[in-house]
Write a structure and sequence with these properties.
This protein is mainly α. The protein is built from 9 helices and no strands.
């Protein structure tokens, strides 16, 4: 063999007993990337499926805040209805000259029917807060100031019947929470399936790399081994291929997730307010 200093490498690319050294940058990045894409060409359908799974996972994840907002609105809306009703319960019987909310509802139903003969007739069990507001606009003297304080929850307050105390819809909140858990679970399953598929792609590419390197090494002349140390040859087979496999396994999954998340968030922002989206 030639008398020249051998470049000693450990099995993982470092010194004989040292840690793994960082890989060298490719001299021709575009050419190297093109070769890598050609190696991935046979796995393109799997990558597309993983991309679709990532889209599904991101869509489910982005819908969770909206659904949790529905649960919050249901809870706060119930609280607002109870507060408004409590105030009406204190003031409405006195304003109508009655002793209870049911009697007040009967009196208001009679007033509404007399004032609106062409409308659907009301009774003590069908008259609502909305009818009370309408009567207040015609007659005045009815306590409706606190109703307007409900603001964004005003629709639910107006639909309340006067004879019955409102309650927080716990069943609706539980249904929303169950739906949220289902979405979180499905999103996790899709994310796991995506990572599993991309990990399989990375392993197949690594296998093809090692197979092609082995074929290449078996055809090299002996002169190559005179000028190349055993550690460097092993580094090609282990460290370099492992670096590529790790990069594909991590970066490819992160790239797919990042792209789908960015597009999904942008769509949600545009749906909420395109003006604020452009400002941001």
């Amino acid at each position: 063999m030639a008398n020249q200093p051998a470049r000693r490498h450990g099995p993982m690319g470092g010194g004989p007993h040292g840690p793994m050294m960082p890989g060298e940058k490719p001299k021709e990045f575009k050419k190297t990337l093109g070769k890598l894409i050609r190696y991935m060409k046979s796995s393109l359908p799997v990558v597309i499926i993983a991309f679709l799974l990532a889209i599904g996972s991101v869509i489910l994840t982005l819908n969770i805040p909206n659904i949790s907002g529905d649960a919050t609105d249901t809870l706060i809306g119930g609280v607002m209805q109870k507060q408004v009703y409590k105030k009406l319960e204190e003031e409405l019987p006195a304003a109508t000259g009655t002793s209870s909310m049911l009697e007040a509802a009967e009196a208001l139903a009679a007033q509404f029917n007399a004032a609106n003969p062409d409308a659907v007739q009301r009774n003590a069990y069908t008259i609502t807060v909305a009818d009370l507001v309408a009567l207040s606009g015609e007659n005045g003297g009815l306590p409706t100031d606190n109703i307007k304080s409900a603001e964004k929850y005003l629709d639910g307050v107006l639909q309340m019947p006067l004879y019955e105390k409102p309650r927080i819809d716990i069943d609706a909140i539980l249904r929303i929470l169950i739906l949220m858990m289902v979405l979180v679970g499905l999103s996790g399953v899709l994310s796991y399936a995506q990572s599993f598929l991309l990990a399989g792609v990375a392993q197949k590419i690594s296998y093809r790399f090692r197979r092609d390197i082995d074929l290449k090494i078996s055809k090299l002349p002996l002169k190559f081994y005179d000028t190349t140390s055993n550690g460097e040859v092993l580094s090609y087979l282990t460290n370099d291929v492992d670096n590529i496999s790790t990069t594909l396994n991590q970066s490819l999954a992160q790239l797919v997730t990042a792209v789908t998340t960015l597009v999904g968030v942008l769509v949600m922002m545009l749906r909420s307010s395109w003006i604020l989206t452009l400002i941001a």
